[in-house]
C-alpha cells in the first residue's frame, strides 16, 4: 500500500466518504418526495446495500483480503437473509391476514 | 507409496492443508471478524423482530411526523464522517504516517460523541412526547419498544466503541500496540457505522 505519495493513499477514503454522503442524501430525498411505497422500499433497500458494500469493501478492507476471508464473512449473511425472508416473512403475513 | 507422497504434497500446498493461515490474517483480526459476524446476527435478530411485528400489525406511525429526519440525517452524516476519519487513522498507522494516527483517532472519537449527543437529544424528545418502552401516544406499543431496544443497542455499541478508540489512542501514543490493533479497532467502528446504515433505513425511512 505504499504506492504514490501519502496524500494519494488516502484519496480512496475521501471518494468512498463522498459517495456514502451522496447515497444518504438520495435516501432522504426519496422519503421527502414521497415516492410510491413499493418503489420507495425497493430503492431504499438497494441504496442501503450499496452503502453497506462500500463500507465493507473499502473501509473494512475486505476487498483487499484473501477471498477465503470474504467468503467466510459474506456466506453466513447470504444464508441468514434467505432464512429470515423464507421463514419470518410468510409468518408475519399470515398473522396480518388472520387479524 | 510414491502416489501417497504426492497427494500429501498437494494437500500441504493447498490453503487448508495446514502449515499456513487459510485466511492470511493474524488471529486477532480473524477473531474480530468472527465477532462481527456474530454481532451481525444479534442486530439481524432485532431488525427481523421489528420487521415481523410491523408487517403483522399492518399499520405503523408515520416516522417523519414523530422524528426530526434532518437530525437523524445529520447523525448519519456524522457517523459516516467518523468512519472515514477512522479509515485514515488505520491507513496512517499501517504506513507509518505517525503524525496522523492520534489526531484522526480523536476526530473519530469526537464523531462518536456527537452522534451519542444527537441520540440523547432524540431520546429525550421522544420520551418527553410520552414514548415509553411498553407504550406510547401513537397507539402501537411495539413502535416505541422496537425503537428503544434497537437504537439503544446500537448506541451501546457506539459508547463501547468510543471507549475502545480512546484506549487504542492512548496505547498507540505509548507505543504499546502494533498497527494491526488500530486496524482491528477500525473494523469494529466501521461495523457500528454499517449497522446504522440499516437502522437508519429500516427504522426511520421505510
UniProtKB/TrEMBL annotation, chain A:
Keyword set includes Lyase: no
Transmembrane segments: 12-33, 39-60, 67-89
Keyword terms of this UniProt record: Cell membrane, Membrane, Transmembrane, Transmembrane helix
Keyword Membrane attached: yes
Its membrane topology: Multi-pass membrane protein
Cellular localisation: Cell membrane
Recorded superkingdom: Bacteria
GO cellular component terms attached to this protein's record: plasma membrane
Stated name of the protein: Cytochrome C oxidase subunit IV
Upper classification of the organism: Bacteria, Bacillati, Candidatus Sysuimicrobiota, Candidatus Sysuimicrobiia, Candidatus Sysuimicrobiales
